[in-house]
Amino acid sequence: MKEWLRSIPAVHELQNxxxxxxxxxxxxxxLTNLTKQLKEVVDLIRDSIINGTWQGPIPGTTQFxxxxxxxxxGKVQKQFSYTLKKVINATGTILHTNLGRARLSxxxxxxxxxxxxxxxxxxxxxxxxxxxSRHSHAEALLKEITGAEAAMVVNNNAAAVYLVLRALAxxxxxxxxxxxxxxxxxxxxxxxxxEESGAKLIEVGTTNKTHLYDYEKAVTSETAIxxxxxxxxxxxxxxxxxxxxxxxxxxxxxxxxxxxxEDLGSGALFDFRKLGIGDEPIVKEVIEMGVDLVTFSGDKLxxxxxxxxxxxxxxxxxxxxxxxxxRIVRVxxxxxxxxxxxxxxxxxxxxxxxxxxxxxxxxxxxxDLDVRTExxxxxxxxxxxxxxIKISRGxxxxxxxxxxxxxxxxxxxxxxxxxxxxxxxxRKLRSDSTPGIVARxxxxxxxxxxxxxxxxxxxxxxxxxxxxxxx
Length: 471
Hints:
Elements: H1 2-6, H2 11-15, H3 18-27, H4 31-50, H5 62-79, E1 87-89, H6 106-117, E2 124-125, E3 130-131, H7 136-146, E4 150-154, H8 157-169, E5 173-177, E6 183-184, E7 188-189, H9 190-196, E8 200-204, H10 212-218, E9 223-229, H11 245-253, E10 259-265, H12 283-289, E11 293-297, E12 308-312, H13 314-322, H14 325-328, H15 333-348, H16 350-353, H17 357-362, H18 366-383, E13 387-396, E14 408-417, H19 422-431, E15 436-438, E16 440-442, E17 445-449, H20 455-467
Parallel strand pairs: 1-15, 5-8, 5-9, 9-10, 10-11
Antiparallel strand pairs: 2-3, 4-12, 6-7, 11-12, 13-14, 14-17, 16-17
Helix pairs in contact: 3-5, 4-5, 6-15, 7-15, 8-9, 18-20
């Protein structure tokens, strides 16, 4: 052991080695930082020799020196590699929460890059030469698309709900149906957000039935808001009843200083119902009914970046903009750029909508899916014989807590590897492929749905499947 320890080169000697110098240039690390990494590698080797666990080359040999730099290179790569990485979503779930939900359109991405790379007029009026407001950039487009008097954007929809309740109902009563106290992702509950805001939650009705008279009996002089939460992430089926938005609007108009506020959650700006997909109300439709405020997400059915969007009557939006909490939940220039790029496609009409990946994937035709699936399987069979492959009918999900009852007809590819189990194949696709590939696993088969795989990604998926080897 002592002889081995004496054979470990000194750090200053290793610093003069060609491999250290080359790594210094390639890694873009300064000398101090790379030397620190080198010392940690040498200390690790020394400790393992002392503990009797060293299984590498014998110290003092050329192979030992090479191993030191191999370990150093791996350490540097691991420490300075991005942890947030591109993946290919082959699950067919369009708004996959674990995989980042909505993909941005090319217009949105280009706008983000331009704004991120340069200075911008984020809070500056170019014509007047004076300070401006970041709220203005998305507001005009949101007003045009939804028909609202005013709009503002915060960092997510939970923040939008919190801001509305905090700014407009702190220490006041907010009436909401018991059946609408939903839990959203990560165990966040609407009821908990309401309580944290300082508003006093008044639950009415039952889980499955709420009537207009339940709201009428609950109103007091302390009531500030009548709130409706669109239950977009679950459905109660059977013996149910709820009060329509139009009835609640008419009811609150008869009350003094009571706001009607609806949280739509998923935030559809496009009417999927006319194509037979789900029953999500569109924001413009709700605004036209006369609602005071509406909140919804930017990265669900809208197909943009993570954001919480608030639209409605100008008098209430102005109060929200002036509230101190607005600065805490505001969005940065890149989110605004992504949202603006997405909204411009909406403003262009039907042709522009096809630029938005979420909408494009939702509306993908059966014929397009059939052609792409058949072509992909043909190419895979031509390049490898390692799989048993079958094509069958299946369903895709919208995901993201949106349209839970909707099943989109699709074609799926079922794969069985000759040597690997489905779990082993799925793990290799995720961890050994670049980019990582996430697919479904069912009944010892890996299931691939090309609905959520772009045509540019198909080649990468094909190459990954061909290259996979059994251990």
